[in-house]
Design brief:
Layout: H1 3-22, H2 24-27, H3 30-47, H4 53-59, H5 65-81, H6 83-93, H7 95-115, H8 119-153, H9 159-184, H10 189-210, H11 226-231, H12 234-250, H13 256-265, H14 269-296, H15 299-320, H16 327-359, H17 365-392, H18 399-411
Subcellular location: Cell membrane
Keywords: Cell membrane, Membrane, Transmembrane, Transmembrane helix, Transport
Membrane topology: Multi-pass membrane protein
Length: about 425
């Protein structure tokens, strides 16, 4: 008799918790909903183009492997590396003008890339595409993180649940984008680029109408003074380096994975389906994984588990690469790599974003959000060029995969202790 009321109480609490989770989207503010849907649209336009860029550079433009790696690294660095600029501008001028300016530049960059025929023109277009994201992405991400903290403090639930929704929205766009790009690639690469530009035209129009001129509670900060405290924040810089190792591994979806798919199947067609697999996993399992991690792991342990899963993905291909499998069976290691990389991403990305507000200086969340991407972008620039060089050197086929496996595994030691 004494146990029965306790069981009823526990069941009631679990029922209420489940109801709260299912109503998370409905309880979000209109601003948070807009920002989350913004991420979906950003990735829809972006991933319609990016998965097919390496093949276009190597075949249509005729660039060498190291040059393709350098161009992809420059794209990432001009985006991730300059996030610190976009974040500082968002702190200084607000979210709206920075987002609108970034959309205009992204439209121009995609149109330019569609018509670029020389290596210098491709590099210019890629840099413009990256810088556009360096404007709008940190503005959106920092405001989502700020709103998530406010939502948590108001009793709405864990901030990671909001950031997980943000990740799901981005992956939903990443799921549809490659499928759209694969269909348009039957016409030509220019059609893919123009379609990506068209998506951002719609984003620009929607945000011009819906994004508030001033967001309540967001105080505009003076430009000076933020970088000095940031460079002295050792715990934050350690987090940046660990996140950079994850981002370098994630960018191998666009460099080393296409090479493996081309080798095993003789075409790039399966690449779209592997991207779809990654996005579908995030869309369907990100929220359950986030809830599971929130109950069992703190932010540091969540990132550690994610980085080790990512390292395991590279080891799967490294272990099977010497066998030289081809055809449908040869794609299984690549699929295993994608699955483990995606599971690791689902643990690392929300935890890293949720950690930044705890380490950022007051009023500098945009700067710190951008700085994390800038440091990781520099790591990707160096790492992508080195990976392209490894692919061109004629080393045993498993060596690049083994080298890449060591990077996320070693970065676990960089994670700061929770304080």
């Amino acid at each position: 008799m004494t146990d029965r009321p306790a069981k009823v109480t526990k069941a009631t609490k679990e029922t209420k918790a489940t109801g709260r989770r299912t109503r998370t989207w409905a309880r979000l503010s209109p601003l948070l909903r807009l920002l989350i849907l913004t991420q979906l649209a950003f990735n829809l336009g972006f991933f319609a183009v990016l998965p097919f860029l390496a093949e276009h550079l190597g075949t249509a433009i005729g660039l060498a492997g190291w040059m393709v790696g350098l161009v992809l690294g420059l794209r990432t660095f001009s985006q991730q590396g300059l996030f610190v600029v976009g974040g500082a501008l968002a702190d200084r001028y607000g979210v709206r003008p920075v987002v609108l300016a970034g959309c205009v530049l992204r439209i121009a960059g995609f149109v330019w890339l569609g018509y670029a025929a020389q290596s210098w023109a491709v590099i210019g277009a890629v840099l413009l595409i990256g810088f556009a994201a360096a404007l709008f992405s940190p503005a959106v991400e920092s405001e989502v993180a700020r709103q998530a903290v406010l939502w948590e403090e108001a009793g709405g639930g864990s901030r990671t649940s909001v950031l997980a929704l943000f990740t799901v929205a981005g992956q939903a766009g990443a799921f549809v984008g490659p499928l759209l790009g694969a269909m348009l690639l039957e016409v030509d690469f220019r059609a893919v680029c123009l379609a990506g530009a068209g998506v951002f035209v719609l984003v620009l129009a929607g945000h011009f109408r819906l994004l508030p001129q001033h967001i309540p509670g967001r105080v505009r900060m003076r430009a000076r003074g933020g970088l000095r405290s940031l460079t002295r924040n050792g715990r934050f810089l350690a987090l940046c380096c660990a996140y950079g190792a994850y981002l370098l591994a994630y960018n191998q979806l666009y460099l080393i994975l296409p090479e493996e798919v081309e080798r095993t199947s003789g075409s790039q067609a399966p690449l779209a389906w592997l991207f779809a697999l990654s996005s579908l996993l995030v869309v369907t399992t990100q929220l359950p994984v986030t809830r599971w991690a929130a109950h069992r792991l703190d932010l540091r342990r969540s990132m550690r588990a994610g980085l080790l899963l990512i390292a395991g993905g590279f080891l799967v291909v490294a272990a099977t690469r010497p066998a030289g499998w081809s055809g449908t069976g040869g794609l299984l290691p690549a699929a295993g790599f994608v699955v483990l990389l995606t599971l690791g991403q689902m643990l690392v990305a929300p935890a890293a974003r949720a950690w930044v507000p705890d380490l950022a200086a007051e009023g500098r969340l945009g700067l710190y959000t951008g700085a994390m991407s800038s440091v990781s972008g520099l790591i990707v620039l160096i790492g992508s060029s080195a990976t392209g060089f490894l692919l061109d050197t004629g080393l045993p086929p498993a060596v690049p995969w083994l080298v890449l496996a060591t990077i996320p595994a070693a970065s676990v030691a960089l994670l700061p202790r929770r304080g």
